[in-house]
Structure to design on (314 residues):
């Protein structure tokens, strides 16, 4: 790919879930290993200005994927940390990149930035028509501030920043920690452990809420395509363009794991946003992305990876 020839690329979060797949695609596109910079959280704290200045030195393109995330439980337990960590990383990193003369800055936004009662499918034009769903508002707004910063920097400094609004991701290498995981890895682990121990599975909420999910390898491809082909100021939805209720998702994962035990719904716990599904035509129009992985195939791959690796996940 001529776009990447000779480019020095920073991938924050490059050792993590989405970031590791983005790195694989960059290498496949011809980016040289020596031109990739992947800061490790153990060594570089991107909440600190000095760290951000250090990592963007001599960099042409920043792919900012690092962040603090999690499911409803994690968001309710630490909303302050969710806001501070994500906002601080984004603000410092973008300013450091601007000062260093970085040519392009591509960042991960989130579907959590949309208003709670956005009409389905969510359109980019609806992003500012209300307040996000309360259980993850701090996270969604921290990411949304990066959009504001990027557009302000484009206006004042002609800084090329790209903002991608991603749906919930899933796939191999996901976070299966019960305290921080999103719904798919959390359910896979619950069903697998209940099956092994002849226990029951307790699921949060009523099951009526709907969600959209994007396979992580598709998301990595979208990230690379956006970097190569898109230079606009407006945010772009990145998703698979479908929705499934939590109840149907639970049934599907139970079937794939051959679980026939008890499933209980804890209706004292929140459902979160009532419905979620993105309108995704702009991603195809602007940088030729559409999701390729069928949902059930992606779930099978995720389950297979978990079962092969669960002994080391703790």
């Amino acid at each position: 790919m001529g776009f990447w020839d000779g480019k020095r690329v920073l991938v924050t979060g490059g050792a993590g879930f989405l970031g590791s797949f983005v790195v694989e695609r960059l290498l496949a596109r011809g980016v040289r290993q020596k031109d990739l910079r992947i800061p490790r959280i153990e060594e570089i704290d991107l909440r600190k200005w000095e760290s951000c200045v250090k990592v963007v030195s001599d960099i042409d393109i920043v792919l900012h994927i690092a962040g603090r995330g999690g499911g409803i439980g994690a968001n309710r337990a630490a909303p302050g940390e969710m806001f501070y960590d994500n906002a601080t990383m984004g603000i410092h990193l973008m300013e450091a990149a601007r000062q260093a003369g970085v040519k392009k800055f591509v960042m991960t936004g989130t579907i959590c930035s949309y208003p709670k009662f956005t009409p389905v499918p969510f359109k980019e034009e609806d992003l500012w028509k209300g307040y996000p769903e309360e259980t993850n508002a701090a996270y969604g707004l921290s990411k949304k501030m990066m959009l504001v910063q990027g557009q302000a920097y484009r206006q004042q400094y002609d800084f090329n920043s790209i903002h991608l609004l991603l749906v919930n991701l899933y796939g191999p290498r996901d976070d299966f920690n019960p305290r921080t995981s999103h719904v798919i890895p959390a359910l896979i682990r619950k069903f697998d452990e209940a099956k092994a121990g002849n226990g029951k599975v307790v699921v949060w909420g009523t099951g009526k809420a709907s969600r959209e999910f994007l396979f992580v390898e598709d998301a990595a491809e979208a990230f690379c395509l956006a970097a190569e082909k898109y230079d606009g100021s407006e945010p772009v939805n990145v998703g698979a363009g479908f929705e499934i209720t939590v109840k149907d998702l639970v049934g599907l994962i139970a079937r794939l794991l051959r679980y026939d035990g008890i499933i209980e719904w804890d209706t004292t716990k929140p459902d979160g946003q009532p419905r979620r599904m993105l309108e995704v035509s702009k991603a195809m129009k602007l940088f030729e992305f559409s999701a390729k992985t069928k949902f059930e195939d992606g779930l099978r791959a995720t389950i297979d990876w978990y079962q092969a690796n669960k002994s080391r996940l703790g």
